[in-house]
Specification:
globular; ten-stranded mixed β-sheet; Alpha-Beta Plaits; alpha+beta; five-stranded antiparallel β-sheet; 29% strand; 10 helices; single chain; 2 domains
């Protein structure tokens, strides 16, 4: 008679934002924080990192995790869960994310605080494989299924800088295979380890696909909304956006006659040949076209600085700022996590190449050769997501206060804020529910 042997979960982790998994420091690279690679130079998500993220999800869902899963018996006991290393299903060109700390006193870049991170773009798919040892703990498979159901609902955070927008993922196609002792000679099989997800389908019968969890995690408040760029509904002005990216953005920026506004009489050929912006907006490539987006860090920073300034102006403690956004000494993690905001594919997207010059205050003309230009988004809808973890009532009140300012268009985003860019109105889904939760 066959007895339970292993339970194997197979699926694909799909990036909903950029992703960066820490690797070894390389003194010969130009990247400050390179992506983890294996000996063949392939981007790699290590099984230990996946296991740690999955255990963290289960701990939030259940409060405690059995020693049989954490392997915490003084290191002498292996875990009943074994996550396998993963590599992208398809070749993905790395994208370099540029980060800079902003001096909250001036709103300008802080000295010596510029660095870049090697990432992979949204949409990259990673095969996922989890093996559960049923002989060690008969409940471990069901606990894995529960944790993975939250990943299937998009509550999966992996890698570095998740608070700044990186590493937000969703588990798709999750399938469960129940192996018995009859399969002991076929699993595991080192000769088939290159593609275990494909191999297991050749001899095992799949169970019912695991559904996504329809309830959230305890202490996990999910917020979402949009940032709309373009003409204001009341007719007063245009909200534009100009967020600078990595220096390489200027090299890959190209004219798109279907997306860029242009003066009457300018031909697409002439505009394309002359297009050489000094400041290009941050973009990523989707479907063969460069798409602007808003990095999570570009949303997080303005919210933090605005809240800190308001508290100091009222003579109040700024401790709630450190709780929400993390202390500067990095002694503990932030409670507020903000995902990258990407353009809605169904909404109109328009850009403009704007010409600027410095004016000589004595002559009223252009100041010497001080002419420059900037690319700005003139129309678009960007969808954002946030997660607030284990927040106190004061912390929820503080976040509600700063989001109220964002709803009124009083929080600047990106560059050119004193030239009219970066003051759009935020829309917050279920705003009334958020306000009510502050007084519950």
């Amino acid at each position: 008679m066959s007895t339970p042997y292993r339970t194997v979960f197979v699926g694909a982790l799909v990036q909903e934002s950029f992703l960066s998994a820490g690797g070894s420091d390389d003194p010969f690279t130009t990247v400050d924080s390179p992506f983890c690679q294996d000996g063949l130079g392939r981007p790699t998500l290590r099984g230990s990192g996946l296991a740690g993220a999955l255990i963290a999800t289960l701990r939030r869902a259940r409060g405690t995790v059995p020693d049989s899963i954490t392997g915490s018996d003084k290191g002498r006991q292996p875990s009943a869960w074994r996550c396998f290393n993963s590599h992208p299903e398809q070749d993905a060109a790395p994208a370099f994310r540029q980060h800079v700390a902003i001096d909250e006193r001036t709103g300008a870049a802080a000295t010596g605080a510029l660095f870049n991170v090697e990432t992979l773009p949204p949409g990259t798919r990673w095969p996922f494989l989890l093996e559960v040892d049923d002989t060690r703990d008969e409940t471990s498979a069901e606990l894995a299924r529960e944790a993975l159901s939250h990943w299937a609902a998009g509550r999966c955070l992996i890698g570095r800088d998740v608070a700044r927008g990186l590493g937000w993922m969703r588990l798709e196609g999750l399938t469960q295979y129940a192996l018995t002792t009859e399969h002991a000679d076929r699993w595991p099989n080192a000769e088939e380890s290159v593609d275990y997800p494909k191999y297991i389908k050749t001899f095992a019968t799949a169970g019912a696909p695991a559904p996504a969890a329809d309830v959230g995690l305890p202490g996990w408040l999910e917020l979402s909304g949009t940032i709309r760029v373009g003409e204001r509904a009341d007719g007063y002005g245009i909200d534009s956006l100009s967020i600078g990216g990595h220096a390489s953005e200027e090299l890959v920026a190209s004219w798109d006659s279907r997306r860029f506004l242009a003066p009457d009489g300018m031909t697409p050929e002439a505009a394309k040949s002359a297009f050489d912006p000094d400041f290009a907006v941050v973009t990523w490539e989707r479907d063969g076209r460069r798409q602007p987006y808003i990095p999570g860090s570009s949303l997080r920073g303005p919210l933090r600085h605005t809240l800190a300034r308001r508290l100091r102006a009222r003579g109040e403690s700024t401790g709630v700022v450190d709780a929400l956004f993390g202390p500067r000494n990095c002694e503990r993690s932030a409670k507020l996590l903000i995902c990258d905001a990407f353009a809605d594919a169904e909404a109109e997207l328009k850009l403009a190449w704007m010409q600027h010059h410095a004016e000589d205050e004595f002559t009223g003309g252009a100041y010497e050769s001080a002419k420059f230009d900037r690319v700005a988004v003139m129309a678009g809808v960007f969808r954002w997501r946030m997660v607030l973890e284990d927040a106190t009532q004061d912390e929820r009140l503080a976040l509600t206060e700063v989001l109220s300012l964002a709803r009124d268009g009083r929080i600047g985003i990106g560059g050119g804020q004193w030239r009219g860019h970066g003051w759009p109105r935020w829309e917050v889904n279920d705003w009334e529910s958020l306000v009510e939760s502050c007084h519950a």
